[in-house]
Design brief:
The complex is a heterodimer of chains A (425) and B (311). With 425 residues, chain A is α/β, with parallel strands linked by helices. Chain A folds into two domains: 90 residues, Urease, subunit C, domain 1 (Roll), CATH 2.30.40.10; 306 residues, TIM Barrel. In chain A, α2 packs parallel to α3, α4 crosses α7 and α7 runs parallel beside α8. The radius of gyration of chain B is 19 Å and the shape is globular. Chain B is of the alpha/beta class. In chain B, the strands form two sheets. Chain B has a five-stranded parallel β-sheet with strand order 7-6-5-8-9, with helices on both faces. Chain B has a four-stranded parallel β-sheet with strand order 2-1-3-4, with helices on both faces. Classes of the chains: A alpha/beta (425), B alpha/beta (311). At the A-B interface, α6 of A face α4 of B.
């Protein structure tokens, strides 16, 4: 089958393309990208007038919950939600049960994802066994099995020597270390940002400084080891400043920002909405602005969702009893487009954060691009379509998002994975 | 007003209404009248997820004096220990047709969350470090009676402000009533942004002396002090921040002392001061009962009935 997509505005920062182009796909690969492609070359044609066509989005940060917590999400429901959000590659964190700290679990996740067959699932392996921060996991064997990075997710080793060893090792293996950078001795017991609102509500806070201290330590160890550090879900002005300085000093650092951190502030938890409770927590106006500015300046390399499903039973409790985390696959695009509409990003810069840069961060050359020969992972969206986010639209098993009931603008129309249409709305 | 969840709901006008009704109720109580029929046929459930003597018994007596049926549930005897969620507990209770649920819970926002699931009126009797609106009512009523008016009065709250729902509730209502509010205590016990509560932080006991027409002491919550204490020792707290006879003398002679109780004798206050003539601690307790009788009547739509009855 030769699939031709015509009429779309093609945005591919990897080849500095932004304009009307036609794309021809065969055997799961992009075979041609040109202003005009003869219709007779194709066996099927998608008319994509008015749509934007980009390389499939790559989400560096998610939790698919399988194995072990399938009541929240599994690889199949997560894949469905991802492709509905235009995401064709999902990196999933290691905090499953059992933890992805050995090659058997890595292989299980990859094989399950292939059976589902909707998108790439790239496992992130644990840094330490059981995420305990003590003994290194079998990182080398997991790399052979297919992990693209290592991370202990929310439990980045407190022991700096352990983290140093992990970073040394990761450098030698050519993979990045994803850090949730936080000094947990400072933020212990907190449930929201420490500041104006926590002072008013009495909810124990998590100071911004905990994130800043954690970020600085992790960057210093990255500098020491020469490893590629990727700082996850940066949420504070101070942490961004630390990353900026580290980058300037030549540290191999990249970072991501989540849509919720560039869209919402702590005000979202004023009425004790547990669907606005996550870690790091929503911060204040100053940080929100810093996040947007960091995306604009290029300091922030990627937008990632930190998609973290929790069931309604788990979230429908008093605030302090609720787990941290919100889902994000299907709100990634409309919220990112807000940055374009508000003049923070060009469309091309947005695609860089959603696809081009994430591919580079995990060292994948055949995705995140529409170059001839690349895998035909493609997202087609209508940037203007308006709709209200309802639980029925959400394909995740869990519906824990503060954006429920919100007007969103921008909707995925087709998602193509290895040349096949895996989602259509 | 369907529920009483936060001191922020209480306007000057509402306070005036509650205050004057509470004074009449108290007068009736002092005259030895102990049974009123205002809440006959009504049911009040006291649902306490935290230990409490004063507040629980105060709500219980308030309900009983008004002839309501009162049910007391505390965590040690309820099915909570079996792992039932808060929603399920209140939903089950609500199906037994209570008119008011008085809820105390260690999590901030628990009553705000629970009220979404019930038909009964909800009174917040303390949610974690957040709010305790009837405490604010009784403290402000006690102070209003003492001063005549709170307009322009300067009140200092002294102690573990960061962990105190009493401080958060009092600060809001005191300000609504025209007082200026200050906080003082060991620095690690201060909230990060005092302005969020509309209060000013004082930096020394001398400043406390200068500004305070009244000092509201807070209980040092020994149960919230784990390994990472926010102060070095009880002895040190008592010496530097407690009110004893000597400290009381350093305050201006007209400055009065309040404490929500139960007080730790010899820590934040000595027995001598608590029982002394500048202490309003015991009048607070009596006012608490009267205020709660008014609040329960108000939420049941029976305040007018109560007022008629006590005339």
């Amino acid at each position: 089958m030769r699939l031709l997509i015509r009429g779309a505005l093609v945005v591919d920062p990897s080849q500095k393309v932004e304009g009307k182009r036609e794309v021809l796909i065969e055997n799961g690969r992009v075979v041609k990208l040109a202003e005009r492609i003869d219709k007779t070359e194709a066996s099927e044609v998608i008319d994509a007038d008015g749509l934007v066509l980009t390389p499939g989005f790559i989400d560096l940060h998610s939790h698919l919950r399988e194995p072990g917590q399938e009541w929240k999400e599994d690889i199949e429901s997560g894949s469905n939600a991802a492709v509905a959000g235009g995401i064709t590659s999902v990196c999933c964190m290691a905090n499953t049960e059992p933890v992805n700290d050995n090659p058997s679990i890595t292989r299980y996740i990859i094989e399950r994802a292939q059976e589902v067959g909707l998108c790439d699932v790239f496992p992130v392996g644990a840094i330490t066994k059981g995420l305990k921060g003590e003994e290194l996991a079998e990182i080398g064997l997991m790399v052979k099995a297919g992990i693209v990075a290592i991370s202990d997710d929310g439990e980045t080793p407190k022991d700096s020597k352990v983290l140093r060893n992990a970073m040394d090792y990761a450098r030698s293996l050519g993979i990045p270390v994803f850090t949730h950078s936080e000094d947990k001795t400072l933020s212990a017991g907190g449930h929201m940002n420490e500041g104006y609102l926590s002072s008013l509500l009495g909810i124990p806070g998590m100071p911004k400084e905990a994130e800043e201290i954690g970020t600085i330590r992790d960057l210093v160890i990255a500098k020491l080891t020469g490893a590629h550090i990727h700082v996850c879900h940066v949420s504070t002005k101070g942490a961004l400043k630390a990353i900026e300085e580290a980058k300037r000093a030549g540290v191999r650092a990249t970072c991501e920002i989540t849509p919720h951190h560039f869209t919402l502030t702590e005000e979202a938890v004023r009425d004790f909405n547990t669907n606005a409770k996550m870690c790091p927590p929503l911060r204040d106006e100053e940080d929100l602005k810093a996040c947007k500015e960091a995306l604009k300046s290029g300091l922030a390399d990627a937008i990632a969702t930190d998609h973290a499903p929790h069931s309604e039973d788990e979230k429908s409790v008093e605030f302090c009893g609720a787990p941290f985390g919100i889902i994000g696959f299907q709100t990634l695009l409309p919220l990112s487009l807000n940055l374009v509409r508000d003049g923070y990003l060009t469309l091309s810069q947005m695609v860089e954060k959603l696809s081009t840069n994430p591919a580079r961060i995990i060292g994948k050359r055949d995705i995140g691009t529409l170059k001839e020969g690349a895998r035909a992972n493609i997202t087609l969206f209508d940037p203007d379509e308006e709709y209200t986010l309802t639980p029925e639209l959400i394909l995740s098993k869990s519906k824990n998002t503060p954006f429920l009931g919100r007007k969103l603008q921008g909707r995925v129309k087709f998602t193509i994975y290895n040349g096949k249409i895996v989602y259509k709305s | 007003m369907k529920n009483l969840l936060s001191a922020g709901q209480i306007t000057r006008e509402l306070f005036k209404e509650i205050y004057s009704s509470a004074l009449s109720v108290r007068k009736a109580l002092r005259e030895g009248r102990k049974k009123f029929s205002a809440l006959r046929g009504k049911c009040v459930v006291n649902l306490f997820f935290e230990p409490s003597t004063r507040t629980r018994s105060s709500f219980e007596k308030a309900g009983k004096f008004l002839s309501a049926d009162v049910i007391n549930i505390s965590t040690s005897v309820s099915s909570v220990k079996k792992g039932e969620s808060l929603v399920d507990t209140v939903k089950n209770l609500d199906m037994m047709h209570p008119d008011v649920i008085v809820l105390r819970h260690p999590c901030e926002g628990a009553p705000h969350f629970a009220q979404k699931f019930v038909r009964a009126a909800v009174v917040n009797a303390g949610d974690g470090r957040h709010q305790h609106p009837t405490q604010a009512l009784l403290d402000c009523a006690t102070l209003t009676e003492h001063f005549g008016s709170l307009e322009g009065k300067r009140i200092t709250i002294l102690g573990d402000i960061a962990n105190s729902r009493v401080a958060r509730s009092d600060a809001i209502l005191l300000k609504e009533l025209g007082a200026e509010v200050f906080i003082y205590g060991p620095s690690p016990m201060m909230p990060r942004v005092p302005e969020a509560l509309g209060v000013k932080k004082l930096n020394s006991f001398e400043e406390v002396r200068e500004v305070s027409d009244a000092v509201i002491l807070l209980r040092i919550q020994l149960e919230r002090q784990n390994a990472k204490k926010t102060f070095p020792s009880i002895r040190e707290y008592a010496e530097l921040f407690g009110i004893n006879r000597k400290r009381l003398k350093e305050l201006r002679p007209e400055t009065v002392i309040l404490h929500p109780g139960p007080f730790n004798r010899g820590v934040e206050i000595t027995g001598e001061v608590a029982y002394g003539d500048r202490s309003l601690i015991f009048p607070q307790v009596e006012m608490g009962l009267a205020v709660r009788m008014v609040v329960l009547s108000l939420l049941c739509g029976r305040l007018e009935k109560l007022k008629e009855e006590i005339q």
